[in-house]
Amino acid sequence: MQFRTQIPISKSNTPIDYNSKVLSIGSCFAENMASKFDYFKFQNETNPFGIIFNPVSIEKLFNRVCKEEWFEEKDVFFHNERWHSFEVHSDLSNSDRQELLETLNKAISETHKQLKEATHLIITFGTSWIYRILEKDEIVANCHKVPQKQFSKELLSVEIIRESVQNTMSLIQTLNPNINFIFTISPVRHIKDGFVENQLSKSHLFSALHNILKSEIYNLKSEYFPSYEIMMDELRDYRFYNEDMLHPNQIAIDYIWKLFSENYISESSISTMQEVDEIQKSLRHRSFNPESDQHQKFLAKLQQKINRLGEKLPHIKF
Question: In this protein, which residues make up the domain named GSCFA (predicted)?
Fold first, then answer.
């Protein structure tokens, strides 16, 4: 007997392995998945400009990165004793304007290099709702607690999202024609927008994205991972949510990662993942008697495992 519905997932045509270079961009769920890549020691970079939720803001950042358009003084502003940019997350904000500009431009330079070398780009879209700063008539990635009256709130149409995603892909393919795209929709519900409004927002993302993915131009280098569908259908129980009842908890993240790794990571990498997992668990082990001979032998054996793995894959560091 089956007591739950399971989402069918197609195996990737271009699976990720330990030689792959992965760049992850998007919502907070992108960071949940990236933490798994980090744990298993894949070559992975995540959200160099912080968490970004909407497709247009992601496109704007990739436009800067691909063309190496540096941030200038006109692109930052002072509010609540810190300098900010409307194009990036507040995690990058700084009390010193010059330091902020240096941080942003370093992120452009490094991301440009990573994008040229990347084998896979994972983009996680969170919402179709955007805020537009009225003074500049520009869509922002983050409002930085600037008073709400200075913004208008809008829902991106399916057509605008489709064009934005296509523009993003074209920009990136100009820089790196061989890159593989993996798209997903964040399972986190943006209830501050309203329950009905959240569903509408997600539906616009789905419609735009699947319209692109079924096109012959894009489907050879693009795949879709159903993280939203897994959360809503396979894990449709509040025991899989954090206390806010909106974000997936660790059990849910582990389960979604399991399905992702079974379908998007090469079979040849599974044994290495198991080795890494054993080492990670051993490193977290705390001995009752650190000076004992038994513990010293344990540490020596652990170091041998780390050295053997390092010989096979020099980029892996613990």
Answer: 21-260
